[in-house]
Amino acid sequence: DNNWDVELQQVMIAGHEVKNIVARRGSGKPLIILGAHYDSRLKADNDPDPSMQNLPVPGANDGASGVAVLLELGRSLPAEMTGQVRLVFFDLEDQGRLPGYDWILGSRAFAARLEEQPDAVVILDMIGDADLDVYYEKNSTPDLRAEIWAAAGRLSGAERAHAAGRGGAHPARHPGRAGLCPRRGHDPPRRQAGQH
Questions:
Q1: Which of 7, 89, 164, 173 reaches 20 to 30 Å from 17, CA-CA?
Q2: 196 and 190 in contact (C-beta within 8 Å)?
Q3: Is the CA virtual torsion 112, 116, 119, 125 positive or negative?
Q4: Cα separation, 140 vs 120, whole angstroms
Q5: Mean pLDDT, to the nearest integer, of 8-24?
């Protein structure tokens, strides 16, 4: 519990029921949204073994790693903070290119229902790889990205960052001032049934 108000946001989008989980704490400004997706890919369509391509992707990294960080933040963030924090666990983010699906359905549903503009949004995705490289994500707001990287450098004792990176657009960021989506910077064959 840790003083979080938790709600299940259930909506239909693109013919699919989305079930986002939203935990809220605090009030006023700033409004900070921290998010991750909890779904994993229904089919390992990029698996090099055709016999595995109809199996689901386990999602330990692509899905669960960001969720693990949000759960720990929910446990460890101080109860008394200035402003408000929302921890958002997005559903149906990772099904694009599958028949009848599109990408980022959960975050689209969440963003469409935001009643106030966030001051910052941080999306955590694919951050639990055993050989993790986190890149500067190209769609992030530069000042927020720089602030987070500087804090991470101070905490880790190293200022290591990759200047080029990849990452998807995230609609929960668009209504707000700033956004960041730290994630692995390259695309290994991560859609394999036996991995992630």
A1: 173
A2: yes
A3: negative
A4: 11
A5: 96
